[in-house]
Design brief:
This is Redox-regulated ATPase YchF. It contains 13 helices and 13 strands. It has 396 residues and is α/β, with parallel strands linked by helices. About 3% of the residues have low confidence.
């Protein structure tokens, strides 16, 4: 097998919004969590997972790679330094924050929905700060960050396009390639904004800013984790949900309590579930904490952390989970392990794409694939579906 490529999701947000708690709950990594701004100085990087139903639920026995039929597929998670107003000018830890976002495919914006921290991350009373202001700040900082990159040598680039009749989308995508902008993104932006593609030198500054704002929205898809949901005023949650983002009410703190209690052998809990079972002997203090989390789960259905990760990867990025096997009848590899691997693939991928993901030589020698459920032979034009169990047949 080749080396599995891990997609990366960034956790963004102002200081003291709960990012590091979310990160620790999702990865069980050792990170510093404190009630003051800039607890995270350097980015924390860890491995979390998306949760899907494992195909082994269709078999008589579980595969051994899942938890009670829940399959967890690795994704990278980056907890970047807290964002503050004018980060693009270097204020706070701005440059460190923005540079780490280059690596992320999508962003989970952790917002303090309770309004208990101001724009700088300093503690204030619950409901004292408008969380929608935090959303505006992140959008603005990302847009101006892209703008700074784009306008470096813009006059020269624009003149080159007009003199050499080069496609402007190619030039802009090349300039912004480091932040994940593609030519398709640029074409869509130019069309949507009605900019004259043959006269980029005539574009005004506000038009370039609008262009970057559009490119930010499509190249760094984002959802909002409305954190501290248990103490958030209903009006705050309602107004956040009215934004043009996917918004998931979240309690990173409750998820962390559950994950740590599970690690300590006190409970049985599968991340993403709406309940848990006490199996150990918690102290009176631990029991009270678990009871409070139980009340939260009863009210909201889950802590929201796993839902955030799932939606950031499966919805925002449009990825599917596919299971390559060597024996299509038994769904095993050469060592007899059932469904040993699960790969995240872009929607629209083909069996040949999967073959390349598994190993370059397998992709180069690809002949055809076999559907593990039907035994049907699949050509390279077949579009993979989430949950497919696939055998790749290649030239040896």
């Amino acid at each position: 097998m080749g080396v599995l490529r891990i997609r990366e999701v960034a956790l963004a947000g102002k200081p003291n919004c709960g990012k590091s708690t979310f990160f620790k709950a999702a990865t069980l990594a050792n990170v510093e969590i404190a009630n003051y701004p800039f607890t995270t100085i350097d980015a924390n990087i860890g491995i979390s997972s998306v949760r899907v139903d494992c195909p082994c639920l269709e078999l008589d026995e579980r595969c051994g790679q899942c938890r009670e039929g829940a399959r967890f597929v690795p994704v990278g998670l980056i907890d970047v330094a807290g964002l503050v107003h004018d980060a693009h000018k270097g204020r706070g830890l701005g440059n460190a924050f923005l540079d780490r976002l280059r690596e992320a495919s999508s962003i989970v914006h952790v917002v303090d929905a309770s309004g208990s921290t101001d724009a700088e991350g300093n503690p204030v009373g619950v409901g004292s700060h408008d969380p929608l202001e935090d959303v505006d700040i992140l959008e603005r900082e990302l847009t101006y960050w892209m703008m700074q990159i784009l306008v470096r040598g813009w006059d020269r680039l624009a003149r080159r396009v007009q003199a050499e009749h080069t496609k402007i989308e190619h030039v802009i995508a090349e300039q912004l390639s480091g932040v994940g902008v593609s030519q398709a993104h640029v074409r869509a932006a130019i069309s949507e904004l009605g900019l004259p593609s043959d006269k980029p030198a005539a574009w005004h500054e506000h038009e370039l800013l609008d262009l970057c704002d559009y490119l930010r929205s499509v190249s760094k898809p984002m959802l909002i984790a409305a954190n501290k949901m248990d103490t958030a005023p209903e009006e705050n949650l309602k107004r956040l949900k009215e934004l043009h983002y996917t918004v998931v009410p979240t309690s990173a703190e409750a998820e962390l309590v559950l994950r740590m209690a599970e690690r300590a052998g006190l409970i049985e809990y599968v991340p993403g579930d709406g309940d848990f079972r006490i199996t150990g002997t918690p102290t009176e203090k631990q029991l009270r904490a678990l009871e409070r989390v139980g009340e939260l789960l009863e009210r909201f259905g889950s802590t929201g952390v796993q839902e955030c990760l799932n939606r950031a990867v499966l919805e925002l990025l449009g990825l599917i989970v596919v299971y390559p096997v060597e024996d299509e009848a038994k769904w095993t590899d050469k060592d007899g392990r059932v469904l040993p691997d699960a790969f995240l693939m872009p929607r629209g991928s083909t069996p040949r794409d999967l073959a390349y993901e598994v190993h370059t030589e397998l992709g180069e020698g690809f002949l055809y694939a076999v559907d593990g459920r039907t035994g049907r032979r699949l050509g390279e034009s077949y579009e993979l579906k989430s949950g497919d169990v696939i055998k790749i047949v290649a030239v040896k």
